[in-house]
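Q: I'm writing a short methods note and want an example of a predicted protein-small molecule complex. Could you take the sequence and the SMILES for adenosine-5'-diphosphate and return the bound structure as tokens? Please keep the output block clean; save any remarks for afterwards.
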Amino acid sequence: MSAWLEWTDTDARSWIAVPGPHDDKYSRGVLGVITGSVEYPGAAILGVEAAHRTGVGMVRYVGPRFVRSLVLARRPEVVTQPGRVQAWLVGSGMDAARRSFVLVGELTRAISSGEPVVVDAAALDLVAAHTGPTIITPHYRELASLLAKREIDVSAADIAADPSGWAVRAAIELDVVVLLKGASTFVADPVGQAIVVRAGTNELATAGTGDVLGGILGSLLATHASELRTDISLLAPLAATAALLHGRAAERASGGGPIAALDVAEALPAAIATLTGRA
Ligand SMILES: NC(=O)C1=CN([C@@H]2O[C@H](COP(=O)(O)OP(=O)(O)OC[C@H]3O[C@@H](n4cnc5c(N)ncnc54)[C@H](OP(=O)(O)O)[C@@H]3O)[C@@H](O)[C@H]2O)[C@@H](O)CC1
Ligand SMILES: Nc1ncnc2c1ncn2[C@@H]1O[C@H](COP(=O)(O)OP(=O)(O)O)[C@@H](O)[C@H]1O
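A: Understood, no commentary inside the block.
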């Protein structure tokens, strides 16, 4: 039985990299993003927006031409030329049943690149290909179907009844860090780190907020890539920090009222300024 550490602002603060005078876009870290599809273009925009607003050196986006143009229309900073990256975010905004061979190849190459990777939504079934520091970000249904593929008979309702227990079991079974999304977020790693994040507002229960979380987490991995190369145990605190930041941005965006996912991404800079004491 894991003892769950409740993540606080004080815990999170030191996991957000603040650039110094000697930094440039490459030293801060480049995030490669393979998300979105013609069916779900919005997820790509939300993740890329959140990645930029969390603070990262560069985002390289890989996706269909139609989605690329939408991403560029929203964020001209994005680079769509292939090149080196320090971390990957893959899988949000796709339908696993409609992936082309080319796309499966791109997703698998990223997951097996050895770089830190966030695996979401329609790439979850490819996670066994991971070779480097890896975090999966399922919600209850996604975790149930992922475990079912490994012949573990569990329903989304079973996971909802014991999310912390299933997060731990999945981390051990899949040998990756699990960030299990829900009203509380449970982060578990295969060697027993267990962190719960309760920040946020129930207004987060709206479409696309998970895609925003992916972008935040991708940025945190890209900006800590060199430390992660030598210490994989940093993944769990980085995942918890992403969830806390997501929650704080949502509270700020909400102000007690409803939010849309893009509002959460837009509130990130102010939430980070407050968290890091620079407001
Ligand atoms: N803007 C974007 O681009 C966005 C893109 N997104 C992207 O979409 C992809 C799929 O993500 P997801 O989480 O929705 O997928 P999944 O777990 O398969 O859920 C399907 C289940 O939901 C249920 N269901 C459906 N309608 C229902 C209803 N009205 N009321 C009740 N239940 C209902 C349905 O049940 P059924 O209708 O089959 O009975 C089935 O069980 C993923 O790639 C994500 O990134 C999202 O982030 C959103 C914003
Ligand atoms: N009732 C809730 N209260 C607080 N946070 C929630 C609640 N429901 C979902 N969330 C959070 O909102 C996000 C939803 O992500 P996800 O289920 O992937 O949605 P989507 O696929 O539409 O982006 C997650 O970060 C999750 O932890």
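A: Remarks, as requested: The chain has a mean pLDDT of 97. Strands lie at 5-6, 30-34, 58-62, 87-90, 117-119, 134-136, 177-180, 185-188, 194-197.
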